[in-house]
Amino acid sequence: MKFKNNTVTLDATDLKILEALQKDARQTYTAIGKSLGMAHSTVYDRIKRMERQGIIKKYTTVIDAEKAGAKIITAIMTVFTDPKESENVAKKLCLAPQILEVYTSLSEELLIIAKVIAENQEGLHEFIACSVAPLPGVLRIRTSMITKKFKETQFSIADNSKVNIYKRNP
Amino acid sequence: MNEKMASRILRTLSREKAFYFFTSIGNYTGESAASLRTFVDKIREMNLKSLEFHFYRGDFEKWIAEVLEDKELAEQIGTFRNSSPIGESLKNELYRILVRRYSKLKSMLY
Predict the structure, then answer these.
(1) Is residue A158 a part of any domain in this protein?
(2) Going by fewer Cβ within 10 Å, which terminus of chain B is more open, N or C?
(3) ipTM of the complex
């Protein structure tokens, strides 16, 4: 593991360990070591180091909301903002539990793109009308309701190495 | 109705309590009204899609009754909705109802 401009460069062993954890984060150090042909102590040391460095942010559970009985609708909301207020609007959106993800984008205008959930269309409208539209700097809002999900995934070491986004160091 | 009540209905509201004009669920036009006066002006300028969206959801009446606290005006709009107006006739009559009420309230202040 090497440090370069505040970023950490991972070697091939680190990447293999991350790949194994992304497949199943509940497997033991011994199991990972066995599958990768290395000592469990090596696996342990490297995982602990990557946790300290914030490369491994957390271990969590991915829940299928539908199977768990949560009846929700999801929408992608595009908020057009005054450039001076954009940062504040984005920060305020981050505080709302209805908002799952927030991004900014600069196309012709400065935009905030957010993923929003609500119990139904009325709840979604109520949230946007009462909590988003009144924020200072909001110029207008476009919202698209998601009707069918084709793919949803997290950043994956394994998948990204296939498309050369992440180059492995020897 | 007395001068105090008229003054309360005609007050300027905070940003949070303003009426925000949408064209459909989650699609905000960028136009808002924080008083009856600005609401009347916006109704005259607003596109028909937005007017029909809010009118048939009962949003105008709700805001007028609960936020501006003018039950009488809210009832007039509710009664008008029963005739199922659309398009320009909706806009024109709604505007007429609002202007008439606004003028009456304003006259009570002097």
Answers:
(1) no
(2) C
(3) 0.89
